[in-house]
Amino acid sequence: MEKYCGILFHGISGKMLLGIMGASLIWTAVSFFTPLNIYVEIPTVLLGLLYFFKERLYQEFYRLLKKDFFLIALISCVISFTGAYYPYILDHFGYYVPSIKWLTEYGLVKGISNLDLTLGQMSVWHIFQAGFSNFSDPFLRINSILLIIYTIYIMEKKSWIHLCFFPILLLFSQSPSPDLPVIIFSLIILNEVITQNKNISLLFAFSTFVFAIKPTMIWLPILIFLCSIFIFKSNLKNLLFGLGILLLFFTKNIWTFGYPVFPVSFGDFGFTWKPNPAILKASSQYAVMKTYDMQYSYEEIQKFSPWDHIKNWFLLKGIKSKINILFILSLFIFSVFALVKKNKLIILICISLLIKSIFVLTFSAQYRFFIDVFFVIAFILFHEYWNKRKSVVVFSILCLFFISLLSFPGLIQQYIPSFQLGNFMSGFKKEQLYQPSVYEYHQYNKFKIGDLKFNVSKNYPYNFETPLPAISESFIFDDIKAGIFPQPVDKNNISKGFIWKTMTSEEKKEAATAINTIENIYK
Asked: In sequence order, what DSSP letters do the residues of 172-233 get, joined into one string?
């Protein structure tokens, strides 16, 4: 990547991050035509090993370890230990693993969102994980590897405040959650901009890559774009690489979802494989209810006055109301800080975050969509005041705290019952000392509606271990309620994609049988 695109920044971590972006983009293009199976993984790994020895990168590793061996070894052990816990993020089972299964077995499938709307996202991070999931990383712990790369970056750049964020990020190390890479990458790009990295072409390209991983990171490419105009006075041709990545991202979404940006039905080009409007409407209503933590029905929310929308969001029961209040308070404090400082870069960062926040508050103001804002604001406010000693002390104390929470989840369940993810943590198991913990669940039912033969997990809402094609129960109910059901474009080859069709009378009978079977399991 450096030979063809230039240097993002000097050091081993710069090579690694550019390599991650390169592999992700190449595999995204490849996955339109072929699954990301072992035949894709082996050449990539061999190419990486070839350059590792050809460019004598082991010498750079040796020099780095020689300087900070104890600290790097300590952090790596903590990452390995926490990354071996059981996954507990619900999206791991309903979105991450199913996406990776489809990518490794079929690649990007046209209209996959008709089968299961969630799969229409197909994050670029899951494409990257899928490419290494056949034999290099079968336990799907790529996020733990990324945390080690982040450690190397911190040691190379001597930017010690990053260590203070580390313990919180350990909570994302058990799953291929796209939240972790976008937080890490955004903090790295911010650090590079602050330290006067003027390679706008690669900075903008990398920021659009972060956006392609998770579109709620829209503030990052906006920031680099604004910096290129108002600070670096850069030529617009330096943005072409990033715009190319953006085009690939839109193409990928149109292929899987039918629209340029998931889950927004904006930019309708009339593709036949786009989801049914009733399903999109149901998804939109669900997003509105998630904004209020499912504490109000959609009908109740529709009756809210403008003041009720604000008041009820701030007064939600449980911890989420505190997070919402802290979010708005943080934005206010940072805005005042930017005005007082009168620093052009800080003002541009503030503008970018405010634009992102407006988008999030407009579409679905869930805390998981703005959690990155807390990291960014904390970094800008305090990065000048943290030295190595302070950061290592904070890192050590917070690591003990968060490892205790992972090991004894009963503490969360008892003292923060409104934090629902705490109910899905399994605690420490001695087996994780030699192998990452994973769940197995192979119970499922087979159904047929029209030309589609599909599987549904038995007595469980997600399909992380269910053979493909698999559909989540909730989407089956939504489809049947709308009077439609997904069908393969070619019944003999599901890799050619899916469309939705209005059910015939015979298909409605098959659907009723499937519904009865699913409902009877829970009785």
From this structure: GTTTT-THHHHHHHHHHHHHHHHTT---HHHHHHHHHHHHHH-GGGTHHHHHHHHHHHHTS-
